[in-house]
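Quarterly update from the structural biology core.
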Amino acid sequence: WFFQSPDYWRQITPMGAAIPNMNATLLQEVKLPVPVSKNQQMQIVHHLDLIRSEVEEMRKTNENDLGLLAELEQAILSQAFRGEL
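Predicted structure, tokenized:
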């Protein structure tokens, strides 16, 4: 998650560079935030699990919607070819 965060990208993107370049030297200098306690770590894990579940639900809904859209498209085309529109 951290490697997708704005803080990470700010650290690895040199001034004025359009495309960041990560190398071993730069990676050694990246300040990686670490939870201060086991409780904080568990809260973060719980939060990320909730987000993952929400994303999975959205993906399923999106998949279902795409299927319904394809069915609707077929129905409209069938009606159009039969002259029913």
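The mean pLDDT is 86.
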